[in-house]
Amino acid sequence: MESMRRCEPSGTDSQRIAVTRVNIAGMESAPRYRQMTAADLDAVIAIENAIYPYPWTRGNFRDSLAAGYQCWMVECGGGAVGYTVAMVAAGEAFLLNLSVARTWQRRGLGRELLDFVLKLARNHGAERILLEVRPSNRAAIALYSSAGFTEIAVRRGYYPAGSGREDAIVLQLDLDEK
Fold first, then answer.
1. Which CATH class is domain 17-128?
2. Is the pTM of this model over 0.70?
3. Given 3-state DSSP classes, what are the helix, strand and coil percentages for the chain, each rounded to the nearest 5?
4. N or C: which end of the chain has fewer CB within 10 A?
5. What single-letter DSSP state applies at residue 147?
6. Which residues contact 137 (CB under 8 A, 6 or more apart)?
7. pLDDT block averages, 10 residues each, the chain of length 178
8. Residues designated catalytic
9. How many Cα atoms within 13 Å fall on the side-chain side of residue 155?
């Protein structure tokens, strides 16, 4: 039997939508999803800077919003605990960013957020979704692999790294198979 995922109460903004019913540790009410706005960027940047050694900039997020990408927030207790940015066009989706605040990691929220993005991509007519991930990001690779993503390419020297550059593994999921 499934139970409603929980976090702290987060209000009833008309833009917010509750999704999926699963039990996520440490939550006392359902996480809420809503479209990201420019007003969210302080919270997004705070999470981004706390979890990545080479974070996206405010400009990256602002440009994603201006381009009309699918930018979504996850809130618990009225505060941001995660977000995602995806581009969907011409039958494909590209997951650009999927992040969960460090204190909310390892509770199933990343998987739920990924499932949300996959549904979103399907609803916008995408037949497949692609993403790039650092080989050093083992937790993300495990998450994507468990969802059925497979490696299709490697982009050499794609990411900045402490001692030069790091490759990007390109992963793909055919959405009509999942």
1. alpha beta
2. yes
3. 30, 35, 35
4. N
5. T
6. none
7. 39 33 53 96 97 96 98 93 97 97 93 96 97 96 97 96 94 85
8. 132, 144
9. 12
